Amino acid sequence: METSSRHTSVSLIKASLSTLLGLKKVPIDKAEWEGYFDESGHLVKSRDFISSRILERGLDPTVRSEAWKFLTGYYSWRSSRDERLTVDSMRRKSYEALCNMYDKLQPLLETEHRDFLQVCSFVNSDLQRLYTRDAQGNAVGDKKQLEKILLLSYVCNTEADYQQGFHEMLLLFQLLAEKEHEIYWLFQFFLQKTEHSCVVNIGVGKNLIMLKAAIAFMDPIFAKHLEGKGRVVQSLFPWFCLFFQHVFKSFDDVWRLWEVFLTGMPCRNFQVIVAYTMLQRVRDQILREDMGGDDILMVCRNIVDLDADELVAKACSMYALLMEHEDKVPAELKAFFHPRAP
Fold this sequence. Notes:
Blueprint: H1 2-20, H2 30-34, H3 47-57, H4 61-72, H5 81-112, H6 114-129, H7 143-156, H8 166-176, H9 180-193, H10 200-218, H11 220-227, H12 237-241, H13 251-263, H14 270-288, H15 293-301, H16 308-323
């Protein structure tokens, strides 16, 4: 059964890669999304089918909020409309219980736990610098709500301590969802679903090790140049900490990439392939100008205003190239060929 499922997924991924490398297609809109459900609200299309379509085309803003609830695990892919209403009510009540617990613990945390006070200071400082207005000057975020959710997340999440950048990530969930409990749970599930890849003490280090291995395997000439230039690859950790948020020209582009990560397609740890693809943009310049470590980092930090569709397509092309040599890849890269946990 597992082999059959893997063959099905691989076929869908190959079909998606072919589409991505061809003409750009329109995102999944509300009419198409609603057509994926029957009268009771059960999905009539498989998760793999929907994930492959999201990889190919992305989601229209009108369906992104609901679709992300399936992608993150907030809703079960097998649920009916009524079951989802029950789940949403349960999520709301659970969030309210956490808030009540936090309100009772807060005085103790403030007097007895120096780490908590330090995190409060970090959160406050980060939010003061956070720009929450659109191009017309209209407010697009609620900093008080962000502060509440970030501190609650810190207290409740034993794995992912607060780190700089979480406030920027959470803003995107605040803009994505309407209700406070949805924002909180989507953020928590996103971290878990992406295997905490953006968390310094969990996933970032692993990603950097895999990125270095990918460069060594796929581009030995470039890898040799980087070897003598200090800890260049390790210094690219901001890419992963913010999940590439700063390299795009719009929030829509960030959401587009993140929803691809949530599908688990075309492979596990796709974020490493994305980082490798971004490095390839400046690879020839680095070699041509024989750049040293500081100059390499500067040119990497200047990679901005990218188009997510184009980046996803190019990264998928890189992955297709890697698939051709699956039998030769080193152990550090074998995880690329393992499906992400549901």
